[in-house]
Amino acid sequence: MFRSKRCLRLTNRSILIACFSRLVTLCRMLEHPASFPLYSLCLCGGILLLALVGCQPAAPANLPPAPASFPTVTPGRLVRGLLPTVVGLPLDGSNLANPATAIAIMSQPTATPDYTACPAPASPDVPPRPTTAQESAAAILAYLNAGGQPSALASAWELSSDSFRADVDFTGEGVPETVLSLQSDDGGQMLVFGCENGQIVSLFGAAAADTAPQIIAIGDMNADPRPDILFTAQVCSPDTPDDCAYRTDLRTFSPSEGRFVGLLSSTLASLEPPTIRDVDDDRVQEIIVRLTDDGTAATGPLRTGVNIYDWNGTFYVLSIIQLDPPAFRIQYVQEADRAFARQQFDQAASLYERAVTDPALRFWLNDEPAWLTAYINYRLVLAFAYIEDERLLPTFQAATAAYPDPNNAPVYVTMTNTFWNALQVTNNLNSACREVQAIIAARPEAVSLLNRYGSRSPVYAAQELCPF
Fold it and tell me: Rounded to a whole number, what is the largest CA-CA distance in the chain?
């Protein structure tokens, strides 16, 4: 009982034994009677040391070393995973110095595709050119994987330099990719093939064009520096085959994503293929879309000018719009109607008056002289009534004086008279417009006359003709 409660827990038993041995030697030197007090004290100290030596607990035998403490986990992170069945170590972690070793064994990185490994060159027969886009892509892939050379395929299929390139390394691994633009019976397509882990694979494909895509430029356009490919293809409306536009795309290979990504913020459509030029001398090629077509019967009247797309660090976006003045009266009217809808009535009035008074402007449709001026005067009456402009009465008088017989007047003259009369009675724009809407419902040509200007022109609704 004494030993279990009073013994001191010393850590080095060998030191105590050495001290006891020296104390015994000292006591023997003090055995002379004259030194009896010191001799007694020496014996007491020896007895105490002997007791302390006996109090030391024996070290347990065959115990494994204390395991290292588990490493501190980073707050907010949770690691889960299945350990492999065979890793050369027990799965219970008993012989791992650090449990993080098991996680490291489990978390092996994903292999990066090797774009430099390609099929060995050979001389297979060039396949006949298929008639469909899908069959063409499959035939090219099989030929290249058999070791066929892209130049031999391009020569046999009679592909021009505008539709075939095999000298540009898009992936950055030192091996050029194969770029082909094809026209098949079911449409055109742009294809890019490259090496990956010992075989040829399709890296990019764009289809659904009516014609073979035209390669505009291949090279570093935005100084990143990675090669880009800018191409365009013509697409026509299935309902109106004459309504066609070029759809332009810009792509580059992203090593981090392992695929071709787009560099245009939105679809770029134009009536002519775009060009590129460094407009501001910043080493970045701008995309220039020249608007030279003033329109067709399918599109309606179009504005000419230039649109310039520039690189903003992430995408190419529309940066500069330089439009020529409208050449047709209806274009001024449509622009005035847009300002009217924004309640910018002063601007709208100025555009309406320009449409009537500018002798250089042309009519788009042959019957416009019979009704367009009446429509312009009607819209001016609405605008001046809203802003309570003093020009309201003279404009109303001019609008009705040209048509003394209301039965032979355009529908817009009737709408002008109806709006004016209702406004005089109620002095309320909403009440006057309700009367006008009844006229529009009875005479639908009030809307249909404005909706004959092609697919690129605004579409009018009855409510827009008197929106108050």
Answer: 160
Q: Tell the residue number behind the tokens 């079911």, with chain if given.
A: 186
- Tell me, what's the pLDDT at 43? 58
Higher pLDDT, 322 or 30: 322
Count CB atoms within 10 A of the CB of residue 377: 21
- The mean pLDDT value for 125-152 works out to 94
For 321, phi and psi rounded to 5 degrees?
A: -120, 120
Q: What global pTM score does this model have?
A: 0.59
Cβ atoms of 417 and 406 closer than 8 Å? yes
Residue whose tokens read 């402007």: 361
Q: Which residues contact 318 (CB under 8 A, 6 or more apart)?
A: 307, 308, 309
CA angle (32 as vertex; 26, 38 as ends), nearest 5 = 55
pLDDT confidence of residue 277: 95
Least confident of 1-15, 31-45, 223-237, 298-312: 1-15
**Where along the chain do its domains lie?**
2-55, 113-208, 213-324, 329-465
Burial (0-12, 13-18, 19+ Cβ within 10 Å), 398: middle
Strand ranges, E, within 125-186: 164-168, 177-184
Q: Which residue has the tokens 């795309």?
A: 249
In the chain, the amino acid numbered 346 is D
- DSSP bridge pairs for 307: 289, 321
